[in-house]
TrEMBL record:
<dbReference type="GO" id="GO:0016853">
    <property type="term" value="F:isomerase activity"/>
</dbReference>
<keyword id="KW-0862">Zinc</keyword>
<keyword id="KW-0479">Metal-binding</keyword>
<dbReference type="GO" id="GO:0046872">
    <property type="term" value="F:metal ion binding"/>
</dbReference>
<protein>
    <submittedName>
        <fullName>Probable mannose-6-phosphate isomerase</fullName>
    </submittedName>
</protein>
<dbReference type="InterPro" id="IPR014710">
    <property type="entry name" value="RmlC-like_jellyroll"/>
</dbReference>
<keyword id="KW-0413">Isomerase</keyword>
<dbReference type="InterPro" id="IPR051804">
    <property type="entry name" value="Carb_Metab_Reg_Kinase/Isom"/>
</dbReference>
<dbReference type="InterPro" id="IPR011051">
    <property type="entry name" value="RmlC_Cupin_sf"/>
</dbReference>
Amino acid sequence: MEKVWGREHLPPPFTSESDNRVGEIWFDPPAELPQLLVKYLFTSEKLSVQVHPDDARAPDGARGKEECWFILDAEPGARLAIGLRQSLSEEELRAAALDGSIEDLLTWHAVEPGDFFYLPAGTIHAIGPGISLIEVQQNSDITYRLYDYGRPRKLHLDDALRVARRGSYVRRERDIVPLTGERTLIDGPHFRLDRIDGEPSEAAAQRYRGSLLLVPVDGDYAVAGEAVPAGSCALVEDIAHITCTRGKALITQPS
């Protein structure tokens, strides 16, 4: 999907090179798991400062949007922002969005491959340039922009202020992910997400009953004998169908 902040040259394993800036690759949710959306993001410029509603504040009975980011690649100095450095009143947040000072009020995190961040709905956030990541989220496209660096795109200040958490974001211990070993990243109200090394463990098999999604990060994954390369996403009817001799992957399903 073309985005003004995307890239003309994508990192491996993707090979797209064109005059268009590709910012996102989406995988349409399968009928078996309509609640989840998996996509890849590639940035060459800053994304807007934005926020998503939760289920209770989404319009017309739509889903809210909780999401998380698994960092695949990051250029030196790459950063993303999650939450505010200090609590602000609604009036202070509106003023900061209008004059652009909101950018300096965000909590910016340096990122490296393998980092993980979980964003509850209502968390103000932004992604800087030079980052490739996997995003796992509730299947929702509701985004309210607070600030867009002067780009000629619509802002949604009233809606954003209505749903935004105006406090600071504290990074959880679970967000600090060791480089190796199976790890539960999220077991939340909307979805669970694990990072696995090679084939899923017996413990993972106990947690993941029924259909799930497999998102290989690297290695030689297959599902029921069919190769599933890095850069793809596969529906898995039974976790026992996943085979691998070498690699890392994410697995996820609705809670």
